[in-house]
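User: I'm putting together notes for a lab meeting next week and I want to include a structural view of one of the chains we've been expressing. I don't have a solved structure, so I'd like a prediction I can at least talk through. The sequence is below, exactly as it appears in our construct file.
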Amino acid sequence: MSQPKPASEQQPTVSSTQTAGYRTNYANSVQVRMSVWDFFLEFGTMRQDSPEEVKVENFQGIYLSPQQAKALLQILQHNLAQYQNAFGELSLEPVIPPPGPVH
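Assistant: Thanks for the context. Below is the predicted structure for the 103-residue chain, given as structure tokens.
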């Protein structure tokens, strides 16, 4: 029989709720700025209607402490590794479709 952990070693129960302003969005653009105090992530959607211009519409900015940014990096690395194990290696190189009609 195991001994119960002291109160200082027990993990708290985490409860998660969504605020009234909670929303989900799709982002294919993320810009990152940093200062000595924080990281700023700005999410948006990017589209290119002509060869001369790319339009980015930013819709959300999030400030993170450096510690939270590092924690986000670790959880993203972990989840990307799981994704690639399940679905194959991701490439950051653009995939150019062959020429021809689009249906």
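A couple of points you could mention at the meeting. The chain has a mean pLDDT of 90. The first strand starts at residue 29 and ends at 34.

User: Perfect, that's what I needed.
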